Predict the structure of glutaryl-CoA dehydrogenase (ETF).
Amino acid sequence: MSDLSDLLNLDAEFSAEELALRDRVREFVDRRIRPNIAEWYEQAVFPVEIVPEMAELGLLGMHISGYGCAGRSATEYGIAMQELEAGDSGLRTFVSVQGSLAMSAIAKHGSEEQKQRYLPEMAAGRVIGCFGLTEPEAGSDPAGMATVARRDGDDWIITGSKRWIGLGTIANIAIVWARTDEGVRGFIVPTETEGFSAQVLEPKLSMRASIQTELHFDEVRVSEAQRLPGATSLRAPFECLNEARYGIAWGAMGAARDAFEAAARYAGERKQFDKPLAAFQLTQKKLVDMALEIVKGQLIALRLGRLKDAGKLERHMISVGKLNNCRVAIEICREARTVLGGNGILLENAPLRHANNLESVRTYEGTDEVHTLILGQHLTGENAFA
């Protein structure tokens, strides 16, 4: 089941179990996402009805061990994200927000009681979580957050707002990061709590089959039992962000691969000047350039996965994957659209939808500029953020 863009036979680098997982997720995407994604995208609908099916596949918190989670490897998680994003970035984002952000926050920093209470329900898709870090005035600089939590007896009172928060209007719980007198802390906030509200951010030109929201906290009271005890600094949410960034390095290549395959099919079928587009030198150059960038990006993602599984993945390495793979994926999708000509702007064809989605993927979990400076600091030893 090799892909057309697999110029180096990368399938040989995966185990039979990894390939079987890939094929199961790919079948799900082919059966449930591809036939419907154009309608979902056009109508700006996130299909909540497929959440139980994602849970059944073990995709929610799949890299977490125990508590009803699948306990799959980092590489297997990456493979699944690549296949999901070949369907649509917005649907991969759901799995990322639920698993790599909300569930990871509880798994990494929660108490045993919190893990037992929430993780099995989240893995089953019965409880949906969101992750509230970014704010209206604090995007690339989360240290500038204005949301605060103050002690009131045995409780905490949270005041502030968050912006560009995936799933906020359908979430049952929100992982909320706030500034306290003791530093940044994390809280599990049930969305039914008095003073909590969420509103959808729309209309959007990107990620239309997903939900992005703004959260507001008007004197929201939570108990000490809802605080994440292991989260004692800004490092805690960044550990969760790195999980999501890792998955994006794989996912972006899924979108790129899908756009490339659409262009290659079209080039083989569409005839101009009495021969298929694929017979023209310029078209072949476009396809070759796209395939080369895809296989290079997949090699980066695979290397990150093997390092992560070995416990040797470092922060700057994740930035290599996030920066490179998002950047080249957008260019591949745009180039694929040119092969389709005017037909490329129709929603029935995937490349421009992928390109539009990737504008968001390229921005969230660290912009190009942020990851460039992370890598610049690694190379020079100099912090150029401020």
Remarks:
- The chain has three domains: 10-123, 129-226, 235-380.
- The radius of gyration is 21 Å.
